[in-house]
Amino acid sequence: MLGFSSPITWLAIMNYVTDAYSEAGLSGSAIAGFTIPAFAITAALAHAGVALFNNMSTKWAFFVLATISISVVGMTYVFYFMGHRIRAASKLARISGTGTI
After folding, report:
1. Minimal CB count within 10 Å: which of 35, 53, 95, 96?
2. Average pLDDT, the chain
3. Is the pLDDT at 99 greater than 70, yes or no?
4. Is 34 part of a structural domain of the chain?
């Protein structure tokens, strides 16, 4: 399931970023601004994962990862219910000055 959902989620985020910044003509910069930090964080977390499993038992290491994963689920609701406010705060993600996408 992860092999399917991860690329689909990545593509959905890229499509959203492209659409959000296409009016300003900054789609390429927005994608780079999203992709470069995402890859840097991914590389750092790969090294942190090795240290996590070396210094904790497998049970506790998976517990920490599960707790982080469950807390990230809440972000879906934040973006769903507060997304219009987040987009309205961006000067570049506006269409006709309405703050909606």
Report:
1. 96
2. 83
3. no
4. yes
